[in-house]
């Protein structure tokens, strides 16, 4: 995903809930998660075959 594409996509994602309402900080950058989802869609690979360059497949799934 290019920087321009990410700039237009990022505002569409819900904000992380950190603070007294619950939740915790993101462990992985959201851009890497979105890139991993696009990788699975583009290649047709199984979630478990996601390359180690991305977050764990359970996180991305």
List the helices and strands and how they pair.
Layout: H1 3-9, H2 30-43, H3 57-60
The shape, in one word, is: flat
Distance between the termini: 18 Å
Q: Which assembly state applies to the chains in this document?
A: single chain
Number of helical segments with 4 or more residues: 3
The SSE string, one letter per element, is HHH
Sketch the major β-sheet: none
pLDDT < 50 runs, ≥5 residues: none
Give a quick precis of the structure.
This protein is mainly alpha-helical. Helices cover 41% and strands 0% of the residues.
Structural notes for this entry:
This protein has helices at residues 3-9, 30-43, 57-60. The radius of gyration is 13 Å and the shape is flat. With 61 residues, the chain is mainly α.
């Amino acid at each position: 995903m290019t920087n321009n594409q990410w700039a237009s996509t990022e505002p569409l994602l819900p904000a992380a809930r950190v603070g007294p309402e619950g939740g915790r900080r993101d462990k992985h950058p959201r851009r890497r998660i979105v890139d991993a989802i696009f990788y699975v869609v583009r290649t047709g690979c199984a979630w478990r075959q996601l390359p180690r360059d991305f977050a764990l497949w359970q996180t991305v799934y």
